[in-house]
Amino acid sequence: MSQKLRIVCLVHRHLVPPDKIEEGTDIVSAPWRTEYDVTSTLAAMGHDVRVLPVHDDLGEIRRLHEEWKPHIAFNLLEGFDDITIFDQNVVSHLELLKLPYTGCNPRGLLLSRDKSLSKKLLAYHRIAVPAFEVFRIGRPVRRHKALTFPLIVKSLTQEASIGISQASVVDSDEKLKERVAFIHESIGTAAIVEQYVEGREIYVGVIGNQVLQALPVWELFFTNMPEGSRRIATDRVKWSVKYQKKYGIDSGPATELDPAKAEELQHVCKRAYRALELSGYARIDLRLDNEGNPWVLEANPNPQIAKGEDFAASAERAGVNYETVLQRIINLGLRWQPESFA
Q1: Are 310 and 203 a contacting pair, CB within 8 Å?
Q2: Structural domain harbouring 216
Q3: What is the predicted pLDDT for the residue at 240?
C-alpha cells in the first residue's frame, strides 16, 4: 500500500520534533530523535504528516480526526497524562473513534505491561520464564522458599529499565527488603522479584498481526564491565552514552550463535508474541543462560523505532530498510480489525 496517506503522529508534548533542524544539532542524542526520524521519513516518503502533541486531553485527537480525517494515527505515545499504564486507554479511544493506528492493540498492551500477568500467561503456554513473586506496596516482604538467590528486583509495570541498577540483583533477605522498599518508595509501583538468570542479554524484534516475522537475534554486549558487575540492562546501560562508552556497552547481531539456536529463539519469541495477543510490532527480551536455554523476561510492544536503534537495525540486517519498516507498520495498522481478536 504505497498511496499517499494522511498520517497523524501522536507524540508527547515534550517530544515534538522541530520543523527545521539547525546545523550542528546532535539528532542521535536528542530526546525527540524517534519522533523526528518517523515524521521526517514518512514525509520524505510522500505521506501528508501532521504532528499532534498529546498530554491529558483526548478531545484533541477527536477534533483532528473529525476535521482532517486522517487515514491512520502513528502512535508514538508511551502513556497519557504522565501515567504509563494509560497507553492502552489512548489506543482504546482510537478504536472507539474507528481511527486505525500503528502498533499494539489495547489488550496486548495490558497483558504485556503487567510483568506478573504476562509471565503467568507465558508459563501457561509452556514458555520458560524465571520463577517470580510480586510484592505489593504495604504488604510484608516474605520470600517464598522456592525463590533462591540471586534475585533481581524490578518495578512491576515500568519499562525502559526504570529503577534497575547493579543494586537490583540481591543475594540476601535483608538486601531484598531494601530493594523492594526502594521500588515502592522511588517508583511508586509494586515490585516483581524474579530469579536472576546468569547469561546473555538477547532481544528479538517481531513484526506482524496474524503472520509474524521474527527479525535477526540481537544482543547487548558488555565488553569492559568492572569485575563482579552483573551484565544487565540497567537504567545507565540503556540511556547514559557516557556510561556506554566507558564500559564498552553496545548492541548488535548476536555472536557465536548457530543458525539452529537463532531459529529456536525466534520461534520462542513468536510464540510469546501470540500468547500475549500482541499486534503491530514488539521486541521480546530474553536471557540465554550458560547452558544455552532461553528464558523470556518480558515483551515490549511499540518498542523504540528510531533510525539505527535495535529494532530498525535488526530489520536492516534482514534486508528491510527503515522506510519499508515504517510502511509495513502502517499497513499492519490499516489492516488490524479490533473485533478479530474479540
Answers
A1: yes
A2: 198-341
A3: 63
